[in-house]
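Translate sequence into structure tokens.
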Amino acid sequence: IACVLSGLPESIIAAACARSGQRVLHVDSRNYYGGNWASFSFSGLLSWIKENQQKTDTSDECEDWRKLILENEEVISLSKKDKTIQHVEDFCFGDQDSAEDVEEAGALPKLPIFGASGAEGVAQESEKECPPMESALPEAESQEPEKATGTKPASAMEGNDTEITSENESCHSTALGESALELGKTEAAPSEISAQEPKKITYSQIVREGRRFNIDLVSKLLYSRGLLIDLLIKSNVSRYAEFKNATRILAFREGKVEQVPCSRADVFNSRQLAMVEKRMLMKFLTFCLDYEQHPDEYQDYENSTFAQFLRTRKLTPSLQHFILHSIAMVSETDCSTLEGLQATKKFLQCLGRYGNTPFLFPLYGQGEIPQCFCRMCAVFGGIYCLRHSVQCLVVDKESGRCKAIVDHFGQRISANYFIVEDSYLSESICTNVCYRQISRAVLITDQSVLNTDSEQQVSILTVPPVDLGKPAVCVIELCSSTMTCMKDTYLVHLTCPSTKTAREDLEPVVQKLFNLNTEKETENEELEKPRVLWAVYFNMRDSSGVDKNFYDGLPSNVYVCSGPDSALGNDCAVKQAETIFQEMFPTEEFCPPPPNPEDIIYDEDEIAPEESGFSNSPETKPEPSTEESSSGGSTAVKKEDNEE
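Result follows.
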């Protein structure tokens, strides 16, 4: 198997193939794992911004590679220019007076001061810096907790982190909300101070603490009963990562941000709902859990929108708003009644498995998930090559099957199956493909959109569209305990399907929720809002849902994976990976659990290197470097009680 690019679907396929005994070569022209699913430190993101603003072409390093092509063969050239990212704009709103000559902690290059287009000022040397996920190869096994605590920041091991366990053990993991509250109590004093007068953060501090940031290119959460969580548990890949429960669901209504009661306890403890509303809400949510058993209550509205159906249920406007935008999280105009009921049921079924909300977030960012599957692939013999581009696919004219790839060194590498991310396909192959776009924004702010006693909140907020026909905007706010930003700051992700450029789509929402004014004299209303210190906007291609038949002239043994989609979860990537794997190996199980170490039988010729301490078996793993641990590149995992 030859996989080109290390995004989430490709990484899952590579892990599944390696686990089933296939030989896997995984190459990526970038110098980091994940592709458009990656996470970056602050300086790494500035380098990424500069790279995508300049859009430099990659020249061939080997001009005579065509000599390797035989007479009965033809080539399909691959694209050397990534066109999946467009309209990149970054802005610095923080105090820049002392930003000059400030270096990121642990980094060599200097980052000069910059204004409206900050990435233009990044020095060439910063491109040599590795982003947070930069390990030469994914680690073979997870660290022992005792060793991990010596290299990880202390906050990574706090009690509000979540271990993903099997269904039988999940009941022990539901105390996450309590531990989060305990954390809030311990930090009550500083949070009260910061709520009144936020600590002033300068741009130079952000640069200096740049390795504290792990900024995702794509913003997603994991449904606690979603396909990705099930796959992580089944394959035991969950041992390579830690997760934090999303602590609250928010709503934006009448110009204010409010917390939405989700669970039964939240509903009856809520002060914003009257007793009658609480009963209405509980009655409707109970109906949604088994709506299939009561078709007579919704079948007359199957051709109506979910919003129209809610109006017939005698719900107050505030309850309709909460259900539509914060629980079902669907469009007011495009979502049918059945789709809305399915989305509401999915939300409710995910409650209580790991906490008081349905969502989990991986510590150190979404970019950890592709790395976890890469790690599993490496454990079972997969080979990884970063900074290794591919020139073309070699196709046999007679059979029409792809036989090999030719890399930028002019090497010909043969394989039986080829996995290619769609960004590598040239325009001649994608002539019939019409791509959608995703609008993205990433903000660094000085306080939360809704201050509470605890600063350590992971929040999800859906902002309804201002005009009909426009999409709602999903806002995910991350605190420092997620290991994605420095202390006293918040990392805010905004996502929606594109109608214009990312800035045109998302800036109106940013202006509603945050203060963009850099001047000292601001209105009282603006002072109450969190202040944006730094922001970036960009559009990302959404190739999900494109059928392989739309790509012209691709051989039958070449499979195309899409990049990230605009949905909140990761179901699309998991479904795609499993479908491709089953097409290649219909009789093999998809990502079965790995064997226990004591069940592994070694060949005699492996005993000698094992005794000498140089074994590459799954039981042995190298110690991570201090730099890698501090940058958040590899995530330590607490072992379960019953794990050997």
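Note: Residues 108-160, 168-195, 607-644 have pLDDT under 50 and may be disordered.
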